[in-house]
Amino acid sequence: MVTILGNENSMLNQYIAEIRDVEIQKDSMRFRSNLYRIGEIFAYEISKKIEWDKKEITTQLGEAIVPVLKEYPVLATILRAGLPLHQGMLNFFDKSENAFVSAYRKHHKDGSFDIKIEYCSSPSLENRLLILSDPMLATGYSMHLTYKELIKKGKPSHTHIVAVIASSQGVEYIKKYFSSSNISLWVGAVDDELTAQAYIVPGLGDAGDLAYGKKL
Question: What's the CA gap between 210 and 206, in Å, rounded?
């Protein structure tokens, strides 16, 4: 299942417009803040699709029956670009356990690159609800490798994959290689073009650099 939240008018589109804007991008704190808020919106929307229980709550004046989460999801992201988006969801799912995967592009002189994974920190994922997020979904390959690394910690009961901006090719890749019914894809916007260097156009640039500064 693919859900494109940006297809409906909401404040999500305002925040996506700001993280794309080359002038607003000059303020890295605002860039991070917008990703926090986008993460909170995704968390809110995903929360509508997960299981809830009824619980009796004692108030000062009596008893109230209210819905509460049956299970908090494990929140996972790819270092370092995914951290602000992840934090936004953690603000919302504030009792969640967390997982982090270090994945990066190792570029070669001919312009090609490989995806390298060096580190994974995760609780057990066996039969757990998982939300795996990264701001950009370009080819979909790094998301695929990250998921394969995570499921070494156990097979989730359901996985929600979140990307703020995706390429149409990345969406098709996820649909092809994650065809299982226990995978859902959530994106904010889909761009049609992907360059030979696997950058999304118009996209927004390098989310990690914009959030935390350029790397060597």
Answer: 6
